[in-house]
Amino acid sequence: MLPSLFISHGSPMLALTPGPAHDFLRDFGATLSPKAIVVVSAHWASERLLVSTSERPETIHDFGGFPRALFECQYPAPGDPELALKLARKLNAVPLERGLDHGAWVPLSLMFPAADVPVVSLSLPVTWSNQDLVELGEKLAKLREEGVLVVGSGSLTHNLAEMQAQGTPMPAWVGEFSDWIFDKLTSGERDALLAWETAPQAHRNHPTPEHFQPLLVALGAGGEASRLHHSVEHGVLAMDLYAFA
């Protein structure tokens, strides 16, 4: 059975720039053979739950200030309207057509470069409680038995105001938070994770919560946590990937 995943997607330049996280995603994707992917991205925030029914989702370039080559990237993975409508009924979600934002297509383009695995996007209901988001993941868990890969895409740490030059060592306040999350996930302390905002340096690492919240969905959809990758970009972006088997 497939795990659920939490992927730290970092900067959109991850799609083009070789490095530890880029290289790991390329190799890791080759070990997976899902029949479809359901992704919850930090970059599709909403008040209520939405699901994309697009048959051919467009590649959304929802960023600015990057090289032209990044805007020329296309990820033409098909959608799966049948699966999307099934999820809309099961989750009481609103169906609509929407493309793939960079939180979805950037990591998936590395993991599945052939763009031949159907992708369905679920929005991130940012007004929901941490418990609500875990319960959303629990409702998605059965998909794993059907060969569907459930992905939460965000960033383990995400304070863009404190980004530094690439190659800058990780400051202590980033390590303190990421180490706390690692400890709570791998020891199965779900109650602590439901109160992740009280973790050391939580607010400094996440001035807003949307890049952490997809982890809670992945947590609910899976079981025992293991960290498959850890690296840091721009000093403050922890690029951790967790699998929940």
Give a nutshell description of this structure.
The protein has 245 residues and is α/β, with parallel strands linked by helices. Helix content is 32%, strand content 20%.
Rg over alpha carbons? 17 Å
CATH class category: Alpha Beta
Q: Report the average pLDDT across residues.
A: 97
- Count of spatially separate domains: 1
* Low-pLDDT segments, ≥5 res: none
Helix content: 25-40%
Structural class: alpha/beta
Number of strands: 10
- Tell me the name of the CATH homologous superfamily: LigB-like
- The geometry reads as globular
Sketch the topology as an H/E string, one letter per element: EHEEHHEHEHEHHHHEEEE
* Terminal Cα span: 8 Å
Largest pleated sheet: 6 strands, mixed
> What is the second-level CATH architecture?
3-Layer(aba) Sandwich
Number of helices: 9
* Strand line-up in the sheet with most strands: 5-2-6-1-10-7
Organism: Billgrantia antri
Domain Extradiol ring-cleavage dioxygenase class III enzyme subunit B: 6-231
Pfam families: LigB
Keywords: Dioxygenase, Metal-binding, Oxidoreductase, Zinc
List descriptors.
9 helices, two-stranded parallel ribbon, 245 residues, Protocatechuate 4,5-dioxygenase, Chain B, 6-stranded mixed beta sheet, alpha/beta, 32% helix
Account of the 3D structure:
32% of the residues lie in helices and 20% in strands. The model has no long low-confidence stretch (mean pLDDT 97). β8 and β9 form a beta hairpin. α1 (20-29) packs across α4 and α5 (130-140) packs across α9. It is of the alpha/beta class. It has a six-stranded mixed beta sheet with strand order 5-2-6-1-10-7, sandwiched between helices. It has helices at residues 20-29, 68-71, 81-91, 102-111, 130-140, 172-186, 190-194, 202-205, 213-221; strands at residues 4-8, 36-46, 50-52, 94-96, 119-125, 148-154, 225-229, 232-233, 237-238, 241-244. The protein has a single domain, classed as Protocatechuate 4,5-dioxygenase, Chain B, CATH 3.40.830. Belongs to the DODA-type extradiol aromatic ring-opening dioxygenase family. InterPro entries: Extradiol_dOase_DODA, Xdiol_dOase_suB.
